[in-house]
Write a structure and sequence with these properties.
Layout lengths: L2 H11 L15 E2 L10 H14 L8 H21 L7 E4 L2 H13 L7 E5 L8 H10 L2 E5 L10 H7 L4 E7 L11 H10 L3 E5 L11 H4 L3 E5 L9 E5 L1 H6 L23 H22 L6 H27 L5 E3 L19 H11 L6 E6 L4 H10 L2 E2 L1 E3 L4 H6 L7 E5 L6 H13 L2
Parallel strand pairs: 1-11, 3-4, 3-5, 5-6, 6-7
Antiparallel strand pairs: 2-8, 7-8, 9-10, 10-13, 12-13
Helix pairs in contact: 2-10, 3-10, 4-5, 10-11, 11-15
The chain binds pyridoxal-5'-phosphate (PLP).
Amino acid sequence: MLPLEASLPELRAQFPALRRSLPDGRPLLFLDGPAGTQVPQTVIDAIGDYLIQRNANRHGPFLTAIETEGMFATAQQRFAEFMGVTDPDEIVFGPNMTSLTFQMSRALAQTWQPGDEIIVTRLDHDANVSPWVLAARDRGVQVRWVGFRPGTLHLDLESLAEQLTPRTRLVAFGAASNSSGGLNPVKQIVEMVHSVGAFAYVDAVHLGPHRQIQAADWDADFVVCSAYKFFGPHVGILWGRRQWLEQVAAYKVRPAGNAVPDKWMQGTQNHEGIAGAAACVDYLQRWGSHWGNIPLENRGQCLSAAFAAIEAYESQLTRQFLDGLAQLPNFQLIGVGCNANTPGDSSGQSSSPSTAAEHWSSNAGQRVSTFSLRHKTRTATHLAEALAAQGICCWHGHYYALELSEQLGFEPEGMLRIGFVHYNTPAEVDQLLAALAALH
Ligand SMILES: Cc1ncc(COP(=O)(O)O)c(C=O)c1O
């Protein structure tokens, strides 16, 4: 049994929401992680503790203001560890990834000139598309689009290579798709982007709960994520290279200083949320310390151990789910996986269990445990409502990955999205498969 699986009863007991049930007593099954995960008690306690003990504004000489400053410093340290960087001053907090991206896009756009170009993708969540498209419109800058490959729905790197020119100023792309669950080779893409001297702006929101973010190793310029996707409260986090955070002019009020990162944090932040966000990194590190048998002081290593355990466990859930799905020919998997009914997949693979397993192993490492499905006859709305009636929580629609859904011709109905995170169990996968089979 994998280390994480062995810890499941204790781990799940830390999440009060996992004890929730329908009015008739049937337990709720949370497969809505891609839109927001549940939180452990330590995160809830950190939020409460901040409000009870330390609630104050920053930069004051009195006890609670000084403690608030300490909380900020700790949170920046935790998120430097989470982003895989060493300088805590490169961590900027904000309301959410979308607001941070609108803010950064406006600021960066001031450095663009007519004739410049930027690149966005048809795979991304719109929060990494519209802020850039609107900023380009305001500055008279041309927007180029990169699509995805049929079948796997991975980003089309050949198209990216063709569209990169010395005029490209920025490429905005995702580390993992919140729709297909596909992973992008971030490091390789950053290298391509840097070869023409452009900025790489990486949306790691969907990667956050599943794999370790490695901003420094990727050599990215900016990486954004959101704590509510990885077991924390609703707070957004932006990492930017110190050089860029210092050089680029921020839209800010006059009394706010010019020091990094404060110049990028507009107004008073959600202090209790930031305290909770730091606690969600601590939650992951404590489990990593346990699974990897590593002292908690080595927090970076603990985080790596946590994500190694999470990846191994979620891969097991993925295989279990895809093997089961291969038996349900009325369902079509949208993206990388084992289903012969994948749109645009010309491989002609059969969905027999042995072929499915083979196909799965060749695709291992290319996806996280997020799945978009379509049914031959039933709408996504119908599927989501039928599952909800049984206490199975999952989303349907385009989930703001609007271009992808439009390009595949799925609008306005969209898809059904199933998301497994590390607190989901093999029994829950079976329960879902049985519910899907009943909808056959
Ligand atoms: C991949 C991805 N990027 C960006 C966002 C937007 O994040 P936020 O809600 O923090 O603005 C989401 C939210 O669903 C997402 O899944």
